[in-house]
Amino acid sequence: MKNLRITVNGTSYDVQVEELAEGTVSTATAPAPKKTAPVKAAAPVKAGSGEPVKAPMPGVILDIKVSQGQSVKKGDCVFILEAMKMENEIFAPVDGTVESVTVSKGQNVNSGEVLMTIN
Fold first, then answer.
1. Cβ-based neighbours of 116, under 8 Å, separated by 6 or more
2. According to the model, what pLDDT value does residue 13 have?
3. pLDDT in tens, 38-82
4. Residue 77 is part of a domain; what is its CATH number?
5. Residue 83 belongs to what domain range?
6. pLDDT-derived band at 15, boundaries 50, 70, 90
7. Three-class SS string for 61-98?
8. Which end of the chain, N or C, is less packed with Cβ atoms under 10 Å?
9. Secondary structure letter of residue 34 according to DSSP
10. CA pair distance 96, 117, nearest whole angstrom
C-alpha cells in the first residue's frame, strides 16, 4: 500500500494506492477533500488609459517580466502565462512605458482580461 497526496484544481487529496496482481480489477472512491487555507489575492490595480495587453487565453500568470514605469519595446516578453500545461510568452504590442500591471504572479486570469497597460 502506498500513500500519495494528489492535488486537483488546488484541492489536496491524501490517497492510498494498492498494487494489484495482473488481471485484477478494483474500484476506488475519493476521500473528502482536505481543507487548505485559501490564497489571498492581491488587491486589483486599475488598468491605465494606455494600450492594454490582454490575456490571449485563460491561465495562470507564472512570471511578470516588467514593472510599472519600465520602458518596453514592441515584441519584448512581458509575461509568462501557463495554459494547458504549456508556458506561453506574452509580448508587448507597442513601444512605450508600463503604466500599470494589473495582475500578480500565481493569479488565474480569463481570456481577454487586461494584464497591463503601456503608455
1. 47, 52, 53, 66, 78, 79, 98, 99, 100, 101, 102, 103
2. 78
3. 555 554 555 557 899 999 999 999 999 999 999 999 999 999 999
4. 2.40.50.100
5. 51-118
6. confident
7. EEEECCCCCCEECCCCEEEEEEECCEEEEEECCCCEEE
8. N
9. B
10. 10
